[in-house]
Design brief:
There is one protein chain. By secondary structure, the chain is mainly beta. It has one domain: Galactose-binding domain-like (Jelly Rolls, Sandwich). It has 1 helix and 15 strands; from the N terminus they run αβββββββββββββββ. Strands 2, 3, 5, 7, 9, 13 and 15 form a 7-stranded antiparallel beta sheet that branches. The longest helix is centred in the first third of the chain and has 21 residues. The N and C termini lie far apart (about 65 Å).
Length: about 200
């Protein structure tokens, strides 16, 4: 009987662990600690391709630039919501697609971290990479380490701390680039990005 009870408990623990692994990150606003500042945020809820500027911007010059066949907007994510924004809409990058760049000057800040939610259609990319630039020309992943990440067909939250490269700090030319690594050359398929944010610590 004791052996049977042990087996039941073990199976319950295993099943509980499997279910926990499938849970999505908690929805709702992300709490920013006292020393951090929300520098930039795009919620894409306006659904207007002519509006490239950030919903929230602490410095001028924060825009996104896309390199794909065209963009439109569809139902958004409730992951990484900031301020009073709701899930609203997300940015949809249509294949064939090369990249999307977010220009976010870090002037006056260090300890930079980036968050965004992302999903793809069934024929869209299943793996992407993120890079950054400190000179406005060359993109690297020096301070990110493993810069590739999976993209599923349900929104998930991606977080990248970019701390170890001092050139990232207090830099008016800083930008990030998100690049699809597969399934991006066909006539169908798309990548969806929402609630892009940058947090930093004022110098």
């Amino acid at each position: 009987m004791k052996q049977l009870s042990f087996c039941v408990v073990l199976i319950t623990v295993i099943l509980s662990s499997c279910i926990k692994d499938r849970l999505q990150p908690a929805a709702g606003p992300v709490k920013v600690s006292a020393q951090d500042t929300l520098m930039y945020y795009w919620d894409f809820n306006a659904g207007d391709s002519s509006q490239r500027g950030a919903t929230i911007a602490i410095n001028k010059g924060a825009i996104y630039q896309y390199y794909c066949s065209y963009i439109d907007f569809t139902g958004g994510s409730n992951l990484n919501l900031r301020g009073t924004s709701d899930s609203g809409q997300c940015l949809r990058l249509r294949n064939p697609s090369d990249s999307v760049i977010f220009y976010m000057p870090t002037t006056g800040f260090d300890s930079i971290s980036i968050q965004f939610s992302e999903e793809a259609s069934g024929s869209g990319p299943s793996q992407n990479a993120i890079y950054y630039t400190t000179d406005g020309v060359h993109y690297v992943a020096t301070a990110i380490g493993n810069n590739t990440f999976a993209v599923g067909t349900v929104f998930s939250l991606n977080t990248f701390g970019i701390y170890s490269d001092p050139a990232v700090n207090d830099n008016p030319k800083f930008a990030i680039k998100i690049v699809p690594l597969n399934n991006n050359t066909g006539a169908s398929g798309n990548d969806r990005i929402d609630n892009v944010s940058m947090v930093g610590v004022r110098k």
